[in-house]
Structures are given as C-alpha cells and as structure tokens.
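Input/output pair, single chain:
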Amino acid sequence: MFNIGGGEIVGLLVLGMILIGPDRMPNVAADSARFLIKLKNMAQNVTNELRENLGPGYEDLQVKDLHPKTFIKKHFNDVIDKNDFDMKSKPKIDPDLL
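Output:
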C-alpha cells in the first residue's frame, strides 16, 4: 500500500529514536497504537451506520466498494449481466438499411 521496505522502516525507527528519544519512544508507540485502534473503530462504526441507513441490498457493503471506480464497475457489471450483452458477437445489420 505505501511501498515501504524494511530499510525505510529501520530508518524511520532510528529517526524516531533521535527526535523523540529512547525514554519517550514506548509511550509514543503505545499512544500511536491506541490512536490507530480508535481510528479503525470509528471507520467500522461509520460503515455499519451507513449500511443501516442505506437499508436492504447493502448488507455486503465494504469500505473499498465506496471508491468511485469500484462503485461504477460494480454497477456496470450488474447492468451487463442483467441485459446479457454479448460483446464478442457481431451486430446484426438489416440488409435493407444498406
């Protein structure tokens, strides 16, 4: 997701130890972990609330489904499946129109 390698993580840890100090580093790490857990819980609550407010048909809603590209692809695939478009067959042309 962020394309961060092992060397970059080690570099960030060393930089953190220099800027924060080794004595405060465990407290900062614990606070950061608590913040990430709260952020994850907030996102989950918002998703659950959105599912409840949208009503039936959205029980399987995922956060990644709300991305505009994913949303459009999902709905276009539903339309194509319902209409049974066959993109590989040649269109039928009325010879009288030629």
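The chain has a mean pLDDT of 78. The chain has one domain: 6-87.
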